[in-house]
Amino acid sequence: MKNYIPLIVTQILNIKLYTLFRVKGKDINNHGNQTYYFSYDGLHNNNDEINVDLELQNKILTGKAEIIYPKNPKKIPQNINTNDIEINAIINRFKLGDLTLAEWKFVYYLITKNNSKNEKQIIDFEEFEYLYHYQGNTVTKEKQILNSLIEKQILIAYKNKENRKTEITFSNKLLDNIRKTGYKYKLKNIINFRCKATFPFYDYLVYQLKNENFETIELTLKEFKKTCSLNNKSYLRYSSLKNKVINPVINDINDSLSKNKYGLRVYLEEIKDNQKVIGLKINIIRKEKL
Q1: Which one of 47, 149, 249, 278 is CB 3.0 to 4.6 Å from 154, fit for a cystine?
Q2: CATH number of the domain that residue 162 is part of
């Protein structure tokens, strides 16, 4: 039944393929602030069915999810193998600062598009939109990301081109984060992350793993926050840190492995002093592509 559910949903609602859904209001917290695709969207293998979660389907059928039609629903990027582009893991990616989820995704898009470390790069917001399930159909949303990244000294300037293309000037801060290390992973491993802290933390884990298939690391809570690009004064209560960051980050990483069939599997143990949690023991397992 699983493979037919998205098709049934599209028939009941009388909608087209490539239709996008975004969960409304308070339900966003349950499913992540992202856009959901039903049926084949041109970016995934046509044997895959995207987001067939029953709870989400019920929200769509009962009107608790809004339907979004892209401007050009059939204009899918030609190079659907972009997901297989390899990224070099940089241990100090967290030094880019406290970015929003959309900004982290955009930064990783820039990194994959500019692996030759050019100072200037022309990027395509339409491709970014499809890769990361991001809705930025208005110029205002795109400007917000670009201007914010300039304020955070990650970009220096940008110039709008035709067809939602933009010429971007990289800062040295970002260029330093585009270099060869030999410790790589693919864009598809991170493309569906829902927590902003997962992006720099995943880099950290890959770098710690290096070329091995298993590694155990221990981090104090302060060190964990640092690798996640979080201010040490945030989430002062462990219960808040666990619920808002630790669990979502671990779920992001493990869910990615479940979807792609290879990547990282992470097991976490709490390090305690009496009853107080003072750190985390993290077992990292790499599962190779068969």
Answers
A1: 149
A2: 1.10.10
Per-residue burial over 126-149, b = 16 or more CB atoms within 10 Å of its CB, e = otherwise: bbbbbbbbbebbeeeebeebbebb
Q: Do residues 85 and 157 both lie within one domain?
A: yes
Instruction: Say how many Å lie between the first and final Cα of the chain, rounded.
Output: 27
Please state the pTM of the whole predicted model: 0.73
Is residue 224 included in any domain, yes or no?
yes
**Any residues with CB less than 8 A from the CB of 87 and at least 6 apart, and which?**
108, 111, 112, 184, 185, 186, 187, 190
Mutual angle of helices 54-61 and 5-13, in 10-degree steps:
10
Judgement on whether residues 123 and 53 belong to the same structural domain of the protein: no
What is the sign, positive or negative, of the torsion defined by CA atoms of 268, 271, 274, 276? negative
Walk along the chain (290 residues) and give the pLDDT tens digit of each residue: 333 444 444 445 554 444 455 555 444 444 444 444 443 333 333 333 344 456 656 666 666 655 554 444 444 444 556 677 888 998 889 999 989 988 999 999 999 888 788 899 999 887 887 777 776 656 678 889 999 999 999 999 999 888 888 999 999 999 988 888 889 898 888 988 889 999 999 999 999 998 899 999 999 999 999 999 998 888 999 999 999 999 999 999 998 888 777 889 999 999 999 889 999 999 999 987 64
- Same domain for 63 and 96, yes or no, is no
Are 269 and 206 found together in one domain?
yes
| Token pair in block for residue 15 | 């909608």
Which residue segment(s) compose the domain that 84 sits in? 80-175
Q: How many domains does the chain have?
A: 3
